[in-house]
Amino acid sequence: MTDKLVLIVDDENEVAELVEKYLKRDGYRVVKAASGAEAIRKVEQHRPDLVLLDMAMPGMDGLEVMRQLRNQARYQAPFLLMSCNGDDSAVIRGLSSGADDYITKPFSPEQLVARVKAHLRRSDILGRIKEAPETMTLGRLKIDFLHRTVWVDGSPVPLSTKEYDILYHMIRMRGRALSLEELYRLTWGFDSNGDTRTLLVHISNIRKKLEPDPDNPRFIVTVRGFGYKISGFDIQASG
Q: Which residues carry this modification: 4-aspartylphosphate (predicted)?
């Protein structure tokens, strides 16, 4: 049994009810919203631990809902986007808007529940970690592990939950290259099954936020044919 609360946001009642059934079967508490405006009210009222959000809804779509919650309410729980569109451009758009994961309809309810479990488990683990040191400076960057915040040249940088998690794992494993599959598994808690698009989009977004020249990265360096590594900065730790 779990006390975790999941918000399902979908204007298709049949989809919402099916997902609700499987989540409740696994012990999750569930609240539902059928529109973007209702979703924002439910988040403010219940502060769910995770949001399953349909990307294409009439009126306020899922991306706008997520943007408002991230920017206005500073709500940092994981967002999993659900969409009928599996094109790379749609995946990139969703993840670049702040989503932690993207799942294409129609999906297996069991697979969706497995992803929910993995995201909540990773969120719990990272939330409990007491880092030593508490902060770290890498050139222009400063990372506060205790409060999960990042600064560049003294200005805070808004990273999504998964962007921070990826950065955390790369810094924790600094000194060696991480394969795409290993970094995916560390961050999401399950195998990618060969689909690492989500990870690649997040890496691109992190570079845009942290690198002076994202097209010629000096901090998150590509290891061709393998993965990525942290490079290029002297590290100073404190705390």
A: 54
Shared domain check, 214 and 102: no
User: How far is the C-alpha of 50 from the C-alpha of 119, rounded, in Å?
Assistant: 8
Coil, strand or helix: which one is 157? strand
Residues 110 and 144 in one domain: no
pTM of the complete model? 0.66
63 and 172 housed in the same domain: no
Under-50 pLDDT residues of the chain: 129-132, 234-235
β pairing state of 50-54 and 79-83: parallel
pLDDT at 22: 94
Distance CA 84, CA 105 (A): 5
Instruction: For 36-52, give one letter per residue: b (16+ CB within 10 A) or e.
Output: bebbbebbeeeebbbbb
- Tell me, rounded to whole angstroms, the distance of Cα 66 from its chain centroid: 12
